[in-house]
Structures are given as structure tokens and as C-alpha cells.
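Students often ask why inverse folding is considered easier than folding. One informal answer: many sequences map to the same fold, so there is more than one right answer. In these notes we will look at a single instance of the problem. The structure comes first.
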């Protein structure tokens, strides 16, 4: 079963940057779209960004211009570079494989990685 592992979260001050990683040990991600999601306390999980198998990207309006998604198929890893972080970006971040960016996530959710933006 495809299981993705998120890492790279942490505590960062407002205006800071973090790079999250989404890895798939033992699986090739070449043919999958990969989406990043986040869930803040008391809120529903929301989509943040997605990258298709061909490299086409999309972003939620709330992160456009601040977040960049990329993929390294040789490493079976997808990254989310986050900059100009704000307290409202605080959430647990998850990644998920999809057939297409418009498709629902495949498989179960991982543990996610906590991002806390605070001074």
C-alpha cells in the first residue's frame, strides 16, 4: 500500500521559511500527482498545493506567491518550500498521492508534520 511520509515541520517565526518533504519509501511516484494539505486546530483539512505527474502545479489562493511545490522523481520525494510564513499557516501538513490533482487522495493519511508559526 502506498504510504507517504511527511517531514520538515517545526517552529518558525513569522516571516520565516521551512521546506517540507513528502517521501514514498520503496515506491515510485512518477505517475502520481502529489497534493499537500493542512489541518489547523478546529478546522477542516484543506488543500494547499498539488503537482501533477508532468510537473504542473497549483496553489490555494492563501499560499500563492509564498509556497512552491516541486518534485524529485529520482528520490521519490515531493517538496513544499514555504516562505513568508504567517501564524495562520500553523497546521499539521499532510501529503497524499492522487491520480490527478483533481482526483481524491489515494490511500490513508500519514501522521503529517506540524508547522507552528509563532514569535
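Output (designed amino acids):
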Amino acid at each position: 500500500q502506498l504510504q507517504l511520509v511527511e517531514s520538515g515541520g517545526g517552529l518558525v517565526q513569522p516571516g520565516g521559511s521551512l521546506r517540507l518533504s513528502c517521501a514514498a519509501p520503496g515506491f515510485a511516484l512518477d505517475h502520481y500527482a502529489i497534493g499537500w494539505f493542512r489541518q489547523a486546530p478546529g478546522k477542516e483539512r484543506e488543500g494547499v498545493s498539488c503537482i501533477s505527474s508532468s510537473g504542473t502545479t497549483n496553489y490555494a489562493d492563501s499560499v500563492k506567491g509564498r509556497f512552491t511545490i516541486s518534485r524529485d522523481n529520482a528520490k521519490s520525494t515531493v517538496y513544499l518550500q514555504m516562505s513568508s510564513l504567517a501564524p495562520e499557516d500553523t497546521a499539521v501538513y499532510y501529503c497524499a498521492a492522487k491520480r490527478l490533482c483533481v482526483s481524491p487522495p489515494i490511500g490513508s493519511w500519514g501522521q503529517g508534520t506540524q508547522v507552528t508559526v509563532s514569535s
